[in-house]
## 1
Amino acid sequence: MPGARINVSNVTGLQAINILRFLTFLIISIVFTKIGLSKEEIGLFEISIFIASVASFFWVNGLIQAFLPLFKSNKTFGEKEQLAGTKSPEVFNIYVILVFFSLVVFLIGLAIKSNFSVFGYSGNVPLLNATLWYLLLSSPANLIEYIYMVQDKNGNTLSYGYATSVLQLCAAILPVTLGYDVIWSIRGLVVVSIIKNIWLVTLLYNYSEIKFSFPFVKEVLLLAAPITFSILVSGSAQYIDGLIISTHYTAEDFAIFRYGAKELPFVVMMAAGLSSALLTEFSKKEKIKETLGLLRKKSLRIMHAMYPLSIMLLLFAKPLYKWMFSPEFTRSADIFVIYLLAIMSRILFPHTILIGLKKTKTLFRISVIEVILNIVLSLWLVDGYGTVGVALATIITYFISRLILILYNYIKLGIKPGEYIPLKWYAFYSFVLATVFILLDRGIITIQ
């Protein structure tokens, strides 16, 4: 597939494709409500995507984040300055690892599906077979944008993102608009995943050296293990929230919760893109100060763009939800405004430094503290505030976890917060955001 000749940086390329991925599923959600799909059908589609994400988010991200700092410097193949277009054995080996884990999870899913239950279904959960195939095929395909990144083919990343977004929109929306059951939307996404895997194979042919290395696989797994567990633990908060809803409430309630339990997507996607793109830079020890400065500069750029947008969305969340979806989903806005506060932790990047410097065991330990704190806070706040309390506990936990990481970097590594955080701008924007939230919560500001 030919790529557009666009001058795009690694950071921008990953941020763009993450945003495109979010917008695709947002449009699908909006269309589903506008064409009159029932909340139960929407809930079944959402739980399908949710299950696939729960079963794969931690090991896919953990393996890829371990691969990135090892791409240019590892014990097996040595340290090298990778030239664009050079075939790399590292790329082939990370592909093999991703396929292996995808097969393992798929087979586990097949083995337990008869005992799986959700929304009152037991042993015959709708969409589960299609969900497992989607999980199997979509997980390895996540490698595509990272191959483009390490090969400095970031214009191709945008071409890939645009093309697959259009395909996913058509695959998910066309079946239900033609009157077919929502299961065909998942099957459509499975077909798109097959196309993405064909795309991936062409990239492997062009950019990977077919050379399996058990020592390199071992090196990746050893580095990935604490990262994976860290992501599982720290990222489990929102999934635990969803699992609680799915086991205690109906598909309709789950749909309302899922439509609200969304952080400002551009923040998440841009932050994830920035973090991943800079991981390879920490392998150059002589440039760590320069990399920290770049992290500070890039994060400030995200702050200038995303904090004002977060504040505007706080003010207009309820009318926006009513307009975008339907009056039935207005309750989702109460959850959404809580999740908007997550920007105060997402925009901080102490974890990027630890992963880049391969201090992953420390990251895992702090993540364990995070999940314990989240469970305690959730149990404490749920009685008085219900699902809103669970969401609030998650946001508080995120922030405390980031503070612990910042303190570790300062005390143990001697890296001052000001070296990678634009502190004055961060304090200003966070104060304004918190003030607006409090005024809305107290009813001093009301926009319907």
## 2
Amino acid sequence: MARDPVTVFSPGQKAQKTARWARIMTKWLITYSRRNGAKWRFVEFGGITGAESYGIVDILAIRKDHKPKKEGIKRGDLFDLVLIQTKGGNARFPSDSDIARLIKAADHHRAKAVVLAEWKLGTKPNLYQLVDRTWQLTNPVDIFG
């Protein structure tokens, strides 16, 4: 009986595959953590081949904000935004300069939160929220619930 050939990935291919699964598992976790309210939608910023593209944000989570905030604005006119960076496998956490870029992007877009999603094979993703330039482990329901 012939054995199936084992697929061997280059380090770059392995990193690309792990990053893709980190994004998939992050979206899964957010989708199934939501208790009520508007459903979160996702915008991924991947390159043509599925690899990561330029920029600090990997996923934008967006939903309609159904609470009227200001006079002249009706329910559903505004949005909640969460900027998400994903890390798969043994990828390092964002550097201080990456954190500064994330903060500037969040301020510019008035994001509700900045989240780092870390995923390793065989586990569910861990979510970290950026609070005062440090990553704090958080429950997905606290941000996306």
## 3
Amino acid sequence: MDISWSHAVIRVRDIDAVVKFYCDVLEFEIADRGYLGPGDTGPEIAFLSGSSSDHHQIAFASIRGPEEATSLEHLAFRVGSIAEVKAMIERVSADERVGDGLPLTHGNALSVYFKDPEGNGIEIFCDTPWHVKQPQAQGWDPSMSDEEVLTDLESRFRDAPEFSPMADYRAKRAIDFGESG
């Protein structure tokens, strides 16, 4: 299995100050921003990127309590296929240090979430062929064939905001970032 680094999600107390800092100082751009609850409710999350190839390289969620010592929500690692995500689900479920993973999809990715022995969050995911405005989170059934999973996801997300082929999204972002092709 070829696993590569993707992004980190950080819990913050003042999301506006942190987003402004990363945009001003590191020249990241906001890819998406929204609420983690239904409609416009719940904590806010902001997805930032400095590259057209990644929807986000870092995200900030306004969920850090005043007494929380750590700000890490999760580390995310990309794999190349649905089969590799399914293999990780099996591996995690068989590991007594971890327990069952949580299969989630964001429309643009198929993921499994779990915690390491210290309680740090980990996401293993593969990209889907589509871009979908974030945040999104729905369960998915890893017992389905890869083709069935993709057909199911497309039917569930095709009416979601900004649903489009990922290649079109990345091409638009490359223009936004002034990257030449």
